[in-house]
Amino acid sequence: MKRIVIVSDGKPGHLNQSLGLAEALQRLLPEVEIETLPPFTRGVALKALLLGRSSAQIAKPDLLIGAGHATHLTLLALKRGWRVPAVVLMKPSLPLSLFDLCLIPEHDSPPSQGNVVATRGALNRMRPGEKTSDSGMILVGGPSKHSGWDETGLIRAIERIVSEDGRSWRATSSRRTPAETEAKLAQLSGLEFIPAAQTPSGWLPQQLAVTECCWVSADSVSMVYEALSAGCAVGVLPVPQLKQNRLQAGLQQLIDAKRVVALEQWRGEALQPDAEPLDEAGRCARELLARGLFGAQA
């Protein structure tokens, strides 16, 4: 039995990334156990790092994984105390050379060095399943520090999609979706709307796994990568951009490479899935094994 400890700061997005890699390793190797551990306080982490002793009251694992700045010191303290490899997801706030492997999205401009692997977007847990014929999902985000919100334009775009692509459509929202937008989505004909607050844990991955086509509002870049990882044909709904950022630049690269379709490019035809299925978690898991960081080479 091999064990993975995920240092989790409690943020769902960060945990989703770590679990994506850990579960991909589970699929490649039999009998892998996954456990989560909250990060130490800064003082405890520094003391453990300096003394070279782990103060965690759990059995020694074979691998450490973490995402989010709050996990970095704890990862290094446990790495030193347990003498096991540590993998960090996304660009760390500490020197990259301190970690055994850094999995950094392309949009964060990762440096070219031996312990760095560039990824297409952040890792996630999505997996494709057997697709339901003529199924469609619309994922609606909300305003953020980078994106404004044009509710009228968004509703008009969704009405056009539902009208011109006559499949069975569902839509869901996010924690950032304004209540007024949710109310209008609930009133649209030809669309089953399920608010995010009413979806149980694990609902969206299950839905995307069997959904053929997915439209995502452009503020939700992580969901674009998740829909691609689930094997969906993906379209992007425009939202006003308050300022350019690395995530939006990465999304534009997907559009330019024709891996996703922007609404302004769409002429009513059925979207086609990406010819090159996205499985970044699986690719990174195989790379980790090939480097001998977690058992024998795959």
Shape call: elongated
- The percent range for helix content is 25-40%
Q: Largest beta sheet, briefly?
A: 6 strands, parallel
Total helical elements? 9
Q: Could you list the spans in which at least 5 consecutive residues all have pLDDT below 50?
A: none
Strand % is 15-25%
Integer-rounded radius of gyration: 20 Å
Order of helices and strands: EHEHEHEEEEHEHEHEHEHEH
Class of secondary structure makeup: alpha/beta
What is the count of β-strands?
12
Intertermini distance: 16 Å
Spatial ordering of strands, largest sheet: 2-1-3-4-5-6
Query: What's the mean pLDDT score?
Result: 93
Task: Give an account of the 3D structure.
The chain is α/β, with parallel strands linked by helices and 298 residues long. Helix content is 34%, strand content 19%. A 6-stranded parallel β-sheet has the order 2-1-3-4-5-6, sandwiched between helices. Strands 9-8-7-10-11-12 form a 6-stranded parallel β-sheet, with helices on both faces. Helix 1 crosses helix 9 and helix 2 packs parallel to helix 3.
Topology:
Blueprint: E1 2-7, H1 12-28, E2 32-37, H2 42-51, E3 63-67, H3 72-82, E4 86-89, E5 101-105, E6 116-119, E7 135-139, H4 151-164, E8 168-172, H5 179-187, E9 191-194, H6 203-210, E10 213-217, H7 221-229, E11 233-237, H8 246-256, E12 261-262, H9 280-290
Parallel strand pairs: 1-2, 1-3, 3-4, 4-5, 5-6, 7-8, 7-10, 8-9, 10-11, 11-12
Helix pairs in contact: 1-9, 2-3
Entry summary:
Helix content is 34%, strand content 19%.
Descriptors for this entry?
single chain; 298 residues; alpha/beta; six-stranded parallel beta sheet; 9 helices; 12 strands; elongated
